[in-house]
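Build the 3D complex.
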Amino acid sequence: MLRLIGKRLVGALPSVIGVLIVTFLLTRALPGDPAAFFAGPAATPQAIEEVRRALGLDKTLPEQFVVYLKDLSQGNLGNSIATGQPVLTEIRTRLPASLELTLYGLLVSVLIAVPLGVLAATRPGSWIDHLCRVMTTAGVSLPAFFTGLLLVYVLYYRLGWAPAPLGRLDIFYSAPPHVTGLYTIDALLAGDGGTFRAACAQLLLPVTALAIFTLAPLARMTRAAMLEVLGSDFIRTARASGLPKGKIVYAYAFRNAMLPVVTTLGMVFSFLLGANVLVEKVFSWPGIGTFAIEALISSDYAPIQGFVLTMALLYVALNLAIDILYIVIDPRVGFES
Amino acid sequence: MSAVPVLAVDNLSVEFRTRGGIVKALEQVTFSVNKGEMVAIVGESGSGKSVTAFTVMGILDAAGRVSQGTASFGGLDVLQASEAVMRDIRGREMSMIFQNPRVALNPIRRVGDQIADVLLQHGNVTRREAPKRAIEMLTRVRIPDPERRAKAYPFELSGGMCQRIMIAIALSCAPKLLIADEPTTGLDVTTQAAIMDLIAELGAEQGMSTLLITHDLGMAAEYCDQIVVMHAGHIVEMAPTAELFAHPRHPYTAKLIAATPKPTARLMDLAAIPGNLPDLRAAEIPPCRYSARCERRQSRCDQALPYVLGEQKGSMVACWNPL
Amino acid sequence: MTETLKHIRYVLTENPVTLFAFSLFGFILFCALFGPYLAPYDPLATNGAATLKPPSGAHWFGTDALGRDIFSRVLVATRLDLGIAFFSVVLTFAIGALAGIAAGFFGGWVDRVVGRLADTIMAFPLFVLAMGIVAALGNTVGNIVLATAIINTPLYARVARAEANIRRNAGFVEAARLSGNGEGRILLLQILPNILPILMVQCSLTMGYAILNAAGLSFIGLGIAPPTPEWGILVAEGAAYMISGEWWVALFPGLALMTAVFCFNLLGDGLRDIVDPRRRT
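Done.
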């Protein structure tokens, strides 16, 4: 199994190289003069020339690529014009906020979607089956930013159940001591129940918005996979052996049905990371999405490049994790063909 | 010899609800299996053999419904029994093995664990004993190197090996009745004989009865005491094996026997049976569902089907104009 | 042909949801075509006397902070949103289908190159890649169309590749080859028409996704510039008013967006039933 995992790690290399090339090309594809772009809107011609040399834009493309890689290996992603900080520092401080949102979004979405899909498949035609069908079709049609706004209106403005959509913590609380960067976990580690609850309250609406958007493909896949597995021959064998229904549904059908669901997780992550950007904007969440949007508006290019690169590498890593999870649960991987 | 049969199916009818209307998949099916006997149900695909087996096991599709009849298993009508009772019987007193054994096993569970699951459910074994008992079962079905094979997944084993695992699962709790639904389909010829020999031998050892479902009349003749011939949901004829082959009385049986390859037969002797099974969805199915294909058809064939008992015990033919 | 029509009629009558989706599609198309002529107000005309008015008889969807009629703005935006999605899907179709068919049909290095390119695009979270592309190429509607097309291409390429691969040695292809047709000709005249129905299903499903994607991009301020009415921008403009209770500014454009995406998703499922009844889930 270790050999297989090693193989997958090597297999992810082309993706990483592809990501590096594309992010590099995106920089060079800038309309007009990249040097002028990087120098900022108020730069003099002299400053632009300086930037051109500093960025190595007078060299050939392959040479520039090598320089780009060298910079990357030293963690140099350029500086943000708006804040004057190195992009890497900015991303590093903001990434935990985004990760916390994404991970809770995924967690909630899985916790709802998988049981929903299983129940729908084991009770075809029942109300829960119809509910599942409506939710899966409606869920993918609801843009996460719109759901977020509706939630804000109903749960904050109307009912007052949720706090104002303004970041990770209410202003009366201070951030817990930094350990993981995830406020909920850091607050628990610090034994600070009040901050933990406050962080959860801020997470409630954005996480719900993300979960609604991403649970659709998961629930749909779970339902379809369960239906297919429940109709398969080995389930009939299990029934003919007098195994109880619980054992058949969970130990036999569910584990098999999870295989295609795990594969779907890759697509779900793609959805989730994209929706994250939009939801961050709605909830003024201080994550890398908001950072990128601010940079986009001020045409601050280095942060955008850093953002795209970070997200892509994160996504490659997540896909790798999914592959490894698959190897762990399916003994057949690597033996086929 | 005239003891109470292990399984007595009486007047069983089963319907399926489909998009195209109600399909009368079984009508008035009556037969029995005695202790220690091996009985075959033979017929083409679609004749209702497997539906009969699934009904008796109580694992019929949700679309299927028993409209009349009883199936008495050791005095209990399994068609009326609750799901809890049936679950206790299945795998313990009445087991089943299927065709295509490679897909009939859970692909991502070790085969030893799959045997252990059934033992834990029915076999009065502890969690610690179960793996050992599973390995014993593997030895009984003659799987070499059972300790290692118990840890294998189905995809690592051959089809014949998987069918042995299926047999080990089915026989792990020493059932009174084994239903074998085309157990050799999808296996190569030498493996087929080995599997059938194993079923016959283990059955004899335990005094178990076997209901063999097959389309292969030759195999039925070789292993079974009694043969039930089905056509389009009806039993058209049944008789002890020797008698059936010596004096087939239903025209369909005669055709089936003629269509079975024998070492002595020449290719041109193998008769094809003309026509197809009738559409069982049609509102007006003729009383004799073979009549449209029958060369011996008479005008009275449009009357209700007669069930003519033969001289020997257990022989019957459903025909107005038998051979 | 009559068989196909019969089957379509069967699917429509059997599944009222599909019929509903088709009707909804007709309605949206109507709005896109005739919206600008039907709008009761000029979508750009401001009115200082009627700012942030809730829905009423005069303004069905209310008015925004500048007193513009939201109903007119939502209605007029249909053409732009649908147009962006439509052109991006056409572009995706052209690139993705051809590349995929070529990959599946020729195999070998063509297959490897197409596969590698598709994998590289798929290595990005798609919306993030679209953001990067628009940021790099420039903030225009054309680039939104392009970015949306690029991120959807791998899906088409994969479907087309799989379908073409199955058919590369099918009987009708062999027959065409034996009668002296070149490979390129076979590809365009034999393979493409055969897998067109399956790709059309994909088209409908990606239409929904393309609308979402384009609206998302404009929601964060990319592509279309205010005051042009576009659903994503309209929602963004209304976002700030959600916490002060003027719900209608964002709600109606959001609902329009949702309805359109919902319609194309339903339509895709319905078309799939028509094209391939076996793939129903």
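The mean pLDDT of chain B is 87.
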